[in-house]
Amino acid sequence: MSDSAALPRSAAEAAGGAVAAGQAVTVRVPATSANLGPGFDSLGMAVGLYDTVRVRTSAEPGTTVKISGEGAATLPTDDTHLVVKTIRQTAESVGFSVPGLHFEAENVIPHGRGLGSSASAIVSGVLAGNALLPAEHRLDAAALLDLCSRLEGHPDNVAPALAGGLAISWEEDGAFRSANAPVHADIIPVAAVPATELSTESARGLLPAEVPHPAAAANSGRAALLIHALAAEPSLLPAGTVDFLHQDYRASAMEPSAALMRHLRSHGIAAVISGAGPTVMALANGNDQADQAELLIAQHLAAAETAQFWRVLRLSVDRDGARVEEHQRY
C-alpha cells in the first residue's frame, strides 16, 4: 500500500501550515499479541511491555534521532525511521508539516518476534503527530484507529495497542473498526521470545490461498469460544486457542517455536504463536499455571540445548493502551 493510498484526506487540509514549534510530547505504547490462536487477523491483546517515544518540535528544519534499547544498532536515525515518518504522515493527513523534529525512542518491545513492534511504532507516531496538531484539527478515536490500521495494513495489533485489553477488529464500509472485550483478571501472559526474527511477510507467504470449509467452520467456533474463555472462563482457554487457519502452515518457518507450543499444549497450557511468530505466548490461568508454564518452557529449551537463545517474560494484560503521557510547550 502506498503512503498516498494509506492516508485519508480531510476538509481541514485547506488550513495547512506548520505545527507549532516548541512542543514536547511523550507517548507510551504497549506490545501486543495478535491472533491468539483462532482469531486470525481479527483478535489482539495488549501486554505489559512498553516502548516510549519523546518528541520535540523546532522552527529549524531537520530531524535528529536517538534510539536506545531494541534496534539501537540497526534502526535508521533520519527521516526514514518509522515513527518519525509516521509523525510527519499524520500531520500531513490534515494538511500540516513538521519542519523541525527531535526524536528519542526507548525500545523495549523485541523486533520481528510477533509482539507488535511495528504496530507500536505506528501508534506512537500517529498519537505523537496528532498531539502536535492544533486542537481543532486533531483526529478522533475512530479516525486514529483507521489511520493506524491503514499505515500498518491491518488492525489486529494497532487496535489493542491503542485501547488496551482484548480488541476484536474488522473492516466495514471501507473503514477499520474495533470493539474491546474484557479479559479475566486471572489470565497471565507468559512469552517465550527466541533470538531469531521472522518477518510478517515471510510468515504470510506460507499461508494457502484457500482453506477447506470444515476448517473455517471449526475455526469460527473456537474463536467464539476463545472470547468467552478470555472474558469469563479461563479454564476453557486450551480448547479456545485451537487454530485451524495459520499455525500449522507456518510451522516449517519456526519449528523450534512450533515444538515449544506443542509441548506446552500437551501439558494443558493454552499456548499459541504470537502474531506471525516466532514468539510463543502462553495464556496461563493464574499464578500456579504461570509458574508451570515457565518451568515447562525452561525444561523444554534445556532439553533442546537452546535455552541461551530465548527470553522468558511473565507479563501482564495491559488494560489502558497507548497514552500521551506528556504534552507541553517549552
TrEMBL record:
GO terms for molecular function: ATP binding; homoserine kinase activity. It is an enzyme of class 2 (transferase). One of its GO terms (biological process) is threonine biosynthetic process. Pathway: Amino-acid biosynthesis; L-threonine biosynthesis; L-threonine from L-aspartate: step 4/5. GO terms for cellular component: cytoplasm. It is found in: Cytoplasm. PROSITE patterns: GHMP_KINASES_ATP (PS00627). ATP binds at residues 110-120. Its main location: cytoplasm. It catalyses: L-homoserine + ATP = O-phospho-L-homoserine + ADP + H(+). Keywords: Amino-acid biosynthesis, ATP-binding, Cytoplasm, Kinase, Nucleotide-binding, Threonine biosynthesis, Transferase. Residues 82-165 form the GHMP kinase N-terminal domain. Its EC number is 2.7.1.39. Residues 242-294 form the GHMP kinase C-terminal domain. InterPro entries: GHMP_kinase_C_dom, GHMP_kinase_C_sf, GHMP_kinase_N_dom, GHMP_knse_ATP-bd_CS, Homoserine_kinase, Ribosomal_Su5_D2-typ_SF, Ribsml_uS5_D2-typ_fold_subgr. HAMAP family: Homoser_kinase (MF_00384). Belongs to the GHMP kinase family. Homoserine kinase subfamily. PANTHER family: HOMOSERINE KINASE, HOMOSERINE/4-DIPHOSPHOCYTIDYL-2-C-METHYL-D-ERYTHRITOL KINASE. Catalyzes the ATP-dependent phosphorylation of L-homoserine to L-homoserine phosphate. This is Homoserine kinase. The lineage of its organism: Bacteria, Bacillati, Actinomycetota, Actinomycetes, Micrococcales. The gene is thrB.
